[in-house]
Amino acid sequence: MALLSISEPGQGKPQAHAADNKVVKKRAIGIDLGTTNSLVAIASEGRAHALCDHDGLCLVPSVVHYAEDGKVTVGYEAWLKGAKDSRNTISSVKRLMGRGKEDIHYDLPYEIVSADNGGMPLIKTAAGNKSPVEVSAEILKTLVRRGEEELGGELEGAVITVPAYFDESQRQATKDAAQLAGIKVLRLLGEPTAAAIAYGLDRKQEETVMIYDLGGGTFDVSLMRLEQGVFKVLATGGDAALGGDDLDRTIIRWVLNEAGITDELSYAQLNSLASIARHAKHELTQSEQTQVTFEQWSGTLTREQFNTLIDVLVEQTIKACRRVLRDAKVTVDEISDVVMVGGSTRTPRVRERVSEFFGAEVHTEIDPDKVVAVGAALQADVLAGNKYGDDILLLDVIPLSLGIETMGGLMEKIIPRNTTIPVARAQQFTTYKDGQTAMSLHVLQGERELVSDCRSLAMFELKGIPPMVAGAAVIEVTFQVDADGLMEVQAKELSTGTVSSVVIKPSYGLEDKDIEKMIMDSYSSAASDKEARALQESRVEAERIIEALVSALVVDGQSLLSQAEYACLEEGILQLQKTIESGDSDAIHEASEALNEATLEFAGRRMNTQIKTALAGHSIEEID
Amino acid sequence: MSLQPANYFELFSLPVSFQLENTQLEVAYKKLQSEFHPDRVVNADDRTRVQALQQASMINDAYATLKSPLKRAAYLLKLAGIDAEEHNQLHLDEAFLIQQMEMRETLASLIGDEDLEGLDAMKDSIDKEKTARLASFEAQFTASHFVEAKSIYNQLQFIYKLLDEIDKAEEKLLDY
Q1: Residue A448 lies in a domain
Q2: Confidence (pTM)
Q3: ipTM above 0.90?
Q4: What percent of chain A clears pLDDT 90, i.e. is strictly above it?
């Protein structure tokens, strides 16, 4: 029987009673799927708040632990397990989404292996090789569950944020993870745009603002023009591989240098160093210096030294800001506000440099760790269909130019970067050989001239081109980028009107059949998880019954039972023990019930005896 | 509701002309996107969502085309039945071509000398040429002298490309 859940007074939200309200609110959540930490938030009537656990902790570390028996842990618990089992504890998986093994230029505390079809590497865990998409899905599942618990039911969907600088592969991988987690993506929202929404900067007069987002693993800078209800991204830039983790790494290198350590480190040591570095960085935000200890070595790191260590990285972020200003043809003086997003913007040197460069004050009023999720929740609420007057219009851009490979390994741009999305562009091609019925297009993203300097997105195989003389066919290929920044391709032969079939082979992504298989696998493992638990429970119960009966027999068996009755109960115990070994939880349960029934008489007699013993030696008068 | 304008100008309720009121375009664009953006139909059926995607893409294309003077010029020529991309060397002023080659050489030497100031000055002067040519295009097009207008458009293509190259060179020198 399901229990009716009652919230603590003052906490929890009132349940939407369909019978009472004419309008049942559609509930959706906002998710900030971060490199280091993730967060889920909900909004109602223009006000949003982050969802926290019973200990008041809101951030969910983006850490997933896989145990040998297949058990998956997410969050703080997983992070704790990482101290002893770093090999199976996956952190910063966002850096692997839509990326290849060759993109990773630093040490990871866990092992990665190349996938069969190239593409995204798999992570080796005790529970098998896992794709970054699967790992991210586990984090999403935890966040969705928190949302469902809070809202008391099923969700319409979620708005999930991605760095504005994320390319098509990275976005698609995020969407695939959501699909695997069973949540509908209402929109993939750029993190800077989400921050702008949270600050409600559109409420002022027309403003040009800069969103500076330095998270755990990525750096995003976006230039936005805001006016009443309209949020337009003018240009974006950043570095998809620069974040707080890199600031930490400068400390790690400093420690190894100071301590004179040159040997290769174990996964456990790398993990330990990462924690030590992060802690030191946090300390230096409040203090002028901090003591750093690693194994036998100990030393002092001052804020000044730390500033020197990170200056090169901070300069890289300023460079990205300059680039974005140029792209949008906006000068520094035109910027009215700068919004700081991401935990790493708490670093004093970062704030200093940004303030210096823009000559403006930087906004830090909203918790930089929560601002993105809050913005996502506000948008989710609107997209779920809840109207509150004028809705905001989000005009996002494609962060990198989209193009195809042409003769000689050159990249030809079809959709230039910073084009407002959604957008569609058509390009015409023709056949090379007589009777050619298929064609391959290599689609890329990037700004450089050579294919080798750009990001390979996918191979699009067009089939079903009607056979003609070489050069006679006119194949119009339409590249469509949707509001999430995801790409679709359609091809049509114009002279005959034949639509070609397009098979997509992503370079760093999962094919539809891969995802389907993962979903099927998760169903069967969820089912077997349930079965395993039921079996475990029935076994525990049965063993408890046996233990109780055996000790009762030792005490009273001889005195209260006839030989036949005693033998009967012994037989029952043996039977139950056999069933326990069978692994059939239903059978165990049945046998347990049967034995319980059989002992009722014995239990009754024991009770009587105990009462008599208790009463004996006391007069009636005493008991009254 | 489906959008089926005769042309991009009509889509934004603007007159078909090279002269364009920027604020009018902005207002019209935002109004349309507020209505047709895919975010408005996130929970609708597949067909509605696909249609919204196509409409919004078209609106974005229309906006980008009309906002850029160069693209607007090409589009106007297209509406007048002229293929702006057809390059016929005979229509290009020989003097112009020689000038362009000289510009390229100047640019190359400025880059070689890492002369940022020189590049800035060059950019200013080419910008002035651009403005003059745009005005000239407008005059010719309004007078329906399409052949002349096309020729000026082709010249503008060269000029825009040159400006782009100066930009890239400056970026490189400033180490962006």
Answers
A1: yes
A2: 0.76
A3: no
A4: 40
